[in-house]
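Colleagues,

For the teaching module next term, I've prepared a clean inverse folding example: a structure given as tokens, and then the sequence designed for it. I'd like students to try predicting residues themselves before seeing the answer, so please don't circulate the second half yet.
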């Protein structure tokens, strides 16, 4: 996937990957965002596990076989970029695609997170079509 496809995903068509037997970890401190994304993904057939902070997310990632992680950038305790760095430096999770969610972030932070291994950034709140499209695309590339 090119950088342009990552930055402007709505411009590019993709083939949706079946959700069967796919597990997604949603890490977000916002109850509303976490539950909304959980419902969207479950309705599409994904198995969803949730965590409300980075530390819990890392523990779950160490214990579960995950296909994708949806990670908020701003979390209590360990922030999203630090969680991403730890995920990408761990054998079990280094190849798991990570989609970062952000309410607002600087271009420098976004570039830094791509350098750490993020698949894509999505602005919150994410609409269902965009979320499912990006999850599918990230799993197709896996």
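(Answer key — instructors only)
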């Amino acid at each position: 996937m090119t950088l342009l496809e990552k930055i402007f995903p709505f411009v590019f068509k993709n083939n949706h990957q079946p959700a069967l037997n796919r597990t997604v970890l949603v890490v977000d401190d916002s109850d509303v965002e976490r539950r909304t994304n959980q419902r969207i993904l479950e309705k599409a057939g994904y198995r969803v596990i949730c965590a409300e902070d980075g530390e819990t997310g890392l523990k779950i990632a160490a214990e579960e076989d995950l296909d994708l992680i949806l990670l908020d950038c701003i979390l209590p305790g360990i922030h999203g970029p630090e969680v991403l760095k730890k995920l990408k430096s761990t054998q079990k999770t280094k190849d798991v695609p990570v989609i970062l969610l952000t309410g607002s972030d600087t271009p420098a932070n976004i570039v830094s997170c791509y350098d750490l291994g993020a698949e894509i950034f999505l602005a919150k709140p994410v609409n269902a079509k965009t979320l499912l499209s990006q999850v599918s695309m990230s799993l197709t590339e896996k």
